[in-house]
Amino acid sequence: MKIFDFLGMAIRSLLANKLRSALTMLGMIIGVGAVIVLMSVGAGLQNMITSTFEELGTNLLNVQPTNPDAPGIFGTLYGASQASLTMNDAEAMSRIRSVTVVAPTNENFVKLIAGNEDTTSVIHGSTPGYQQAFGYTIASGQFFTERHIARKDTVVVLGSKVAEDLFGSNDPIGQKVKIKDKWFTVIGVLEPKGVGFFGFSLDEVAVTPITTYQARLFSQKTPSGEDAVQSIAVQLASAGVIDEAKEDIENLLRKRHRIAEDKDDDFSVVSMEQMLGEFETITLALTVFLGLIGAISLLVGSIGIMNIMLVSVTERTREIGLRKAIGAKRRDILMQFLLEAAMLSLVGGAIGLTFAWVTAWGISQIDLGGFTISAVVSPFIVIVAISVSVFIGLASGIYPAMRAARLNPIEALRYG
Amino acid sequence: MIELENITKVYRMGKVDVFALNGISISINKGDMVAIVGASGSGKSTMLHVIGCLDKPTSGEYILDGQDISRLNDNKLADIRNKKLGFVFQEFNLLTRITAVANVELPLIYGNSRQKHQRAIAALERVGLGPRANHKPTELSGGEQQRVAIARALVNNPPVILADEPTGNLDSASSNDIIALFRELHQEGITIILITHEMDIAEQTQRIIRLLDGKIISDEPVSGKNDVSSNSGDSK
Predict the structure, then answer these.
(1) Contacts of residue B109 in chain A, CB cutoff 8 Å?
(2) In terms of domains, do A345 and A230 share one?
(3) Which among A20, A137, A200, A333 has most CB atoms closer than 10 A?
(4) What b-and-e string marks burial along B179-203, b requiring 16 or more CB atoms within 10 Å of the CB?
């Protein structure tokens, strides 16, 4: 078969200029390597976010105050919105048929002190529904009840990490914890839950009755003077009733907040799916952006191949003339130089792929404070990388190869 | 074997037409050994290129082995160069990065032939270089390199070999060897056309065609019956 002879010729002529071939390949190695590493890191980020949301459950809605005058998602940003939600809103929402549990929740960062130990953690003020809505189970002691809410008791339930930081291996139940100069009694410890959004530990948390939180820790009032609620997590009977529940909640809150027909909502109802969608859009954009950076180095690599092939064609003008004299057709010469370019690119791409795979593996091993990005080099990425390498080889080789094929044999034989 | 009928080749240099060949008509029989001589610029190289199907004549008719060449496309011409013609150049034109036998195999690759290696070895043995088949050209002497080039020209068993100053880069001993080899091949029935400007080489052929300004000014058989040309009478 002619093609095997041609492959042999290509290999021999690339080996004849080892350093030059290696340097040209380096461009492809870096290009392909960069594209794959960056894309797999992007894919890893995306996986992490998707799995976080899936863990939370897709039958969750979150209701937050919104500034109706701010554009798009900016209205929901902390501080941009007025406090508009209250405990009564949460109470009313819990009576909607498709809603199984509501968890009105306020949050802030605080320093917790027990004896000589202290730690900084997020503190949530919520209701007993918190446990179900966010999927926590009790490891020891108990979660607070409606009675604690009604009495505004200074009790706290600790996440496993906070409990460990403050009490080590001692039993925290019944111990006192000082938060903002007030003493709280630990009544329960949560089971470890691991890592959530962007590596925030879900175990670095303390939960206290929302009434206690409002009365003794952080007070925020609605314009009408009621205690404000920062957000209300709503768990639904199933993911299938999301649209229906959303509409019910919106109607209910518009009525309760006395919003006129022509006015926008002062709250927003966001489903986990929607949030997932938004995060996916962001990470996709990030992945594409990273991929583009890699693509630039790939482009530089392909220019390197074209450059070296042009040099090679010029250097080998006599050889081309001779080959034509002994019977090589245009397409034979074209094929010879295309194969050389494709081989440079393909071998470079394959080496780049190997490097990328090792690098991605290395990145996956890095502990970024309790979480890792599993940068996966998927078979899809491999196939794309290989095809792109071959394509780049052909694309950057075609012009030099055509120049070679078009050479006039007589002039070529006289060259040099 | 080769019929040229009123062949012209015109190059345009600016506004002037230059006749590299100006009405060449010759016929070369199968088995002939012909020398083309002439000063540089006389058109002898162009004539060899036309005969060698590397160049197309501007006008006229060229019949090779009973086939009208004048109107064939590039691919057909490449096939003819591969199968019917063997080229030998002054500068050998061997690829230095591959061995002698690999050089000889090249025409077989383009001819898509089988048993390339065996045939290439056989061609090298025919020129007396069998033992040096795996040497690279840089490890061979000038005369040996030209023998490799001749083996490459021979490997497809073409009826015609065209040589452009084949001894131009060789010392006299090597030159004599190469001419002796051509004469041997001529004995075996191969038509040989060579360009030279050395008369003692031209006189070892059967026929000398003299060119000047793109025209044939003389075309006569070699008369001198000296010792080296004693075979030429037999081949009639």
Answers:
(1) 2, 5-6, 9
(2) no
(3) A333
(4) bebbbebbeeebbbbbbbbbeebbb
Strands (E) in A312-358, as ranges, are: none
Q: How far is B56 from chain A (nearest CA, A)?
A: 11
Instruction: Give the H or E element holding residue B63.
Output: strand B59-64
* Per-residue confidence in pLDDT tens, chain A, 416 aa: 678 888 988 998 899 899 999 999 999 999 999 888 888 888 888 887 777 777 777 788 889 888 776 655 555 555 556 778 999 999 999 999 899 999 999 999 999 999 899 999 999 999 999 998 888 899 999 999 999 999 999 999 999 999 999 998 899 999 999 999 999 999 999 998 876 655 567 889 999 999 999 999 998 888 888 889 999 999 998 878 888 898 999 999 998 988 888 888 888 888 877 778 888 888 888 888 888 888 898 899 999 999 999 999 999 999 999 999 999 999 999 999 999 999 999 999 999 999 999 998 898 888 776 667 778 788 888 888 888 888 999 999 999 999 999 999 999 998 87
Domain boundaries, chain B: 30-57+73-229
Q: Is A323 on the interface with B (CB under 8 A)?
A: yes
Nearest to A279 by CA among A49, A18, A38, A30: A49
Tokens of A202: 């879900």
Q: How many CB atoms lie within 10 A of CB A225?
A: 7
Report yes or no on A74 lying in a domain: no
Q: Last residue of some domain: A203, A234, A265?
A: A265
**Does residue B87 contact residue B80 with C-beta atoms inside 8 Å?**
no
The answer on A336 and A245 residing in a single domain is no
DSSP-assigned states of every residue in A43-107? HHHHHHHHHHHHHH-TTEEEEEE--TTS-GGGGGSTTTS---EEHHHHHHHTTSTTEEEEEEEEE
> Taking a C-beta distance cutoff of 8 angstroms, is the pair B169, B160 a contact?
no
Give phi and psi for B30, each to the nearest 5: -60, 130
Q: Kindly determine whether residue B74 and residue A323, on different chains, have CB atoms separated by under 8 Å.
A: no
In a domain, A311, yes or no: yes
Residue whose C-alpha is closest to residue A37's, from A352, A286, A379, A371? A352
CB-count burial class (<10 Å; 0-12, 13-18, 19+) for A70: middle
Q: Do B97 and A12 touch (CB under 8 A)?
A: yes
**A319 and B95: CB-CB below 8 Å?**
yes
CA separation for the pair A107, A207 (Å, rounded):
9
Supply the Cα-derived Rg of chain A in whole angstroms: 32
The C-alpha angle with vertex A93 and arms to A89 and A98, in degrees rounded to 5, equals 170
CB nearest A327 (choices: B55, B79, B93): B79
What is the pTM (predicted TM-score) of this model?
Answer: 0.74
Q: E-strand spans in A368-410?
A: none
Same domain, yes or no: A238 and A98: yes
Regarding beta strands A117-126 and B215-221, do their DSSP bridges make them parallel or antiparallel, or are they unpaired? unpaired
Asked if A325 is an interface residue toward chain B (Cβ–Cβ < 8 A), one would say yes
Q: Do B110 and A326 touch (CB under 8 A)?
A: yes
Q: Select from A11, A13, A3 the least CA-distant residue to A320.
A: A13
Which domain does A9 fall in, by range? Answer: 2-53+278-414
Closest by Cβ to B98, choosing from A12, A409, A413: A12
How many contacts does A have with B, using Cβ atoms within 8 A? 58
Domain B30-57+73-229: assigned CATH number? 3.40.50.300
Shared domain for A326 and A384, answered yes or no, is yes
Indicate whether A111 and A16 sit together in one domain.
Answer: no
Instruction: Please report whether residue A70 resides in a domain.
Output: no
The ipTM, to two decimals, is 0.91
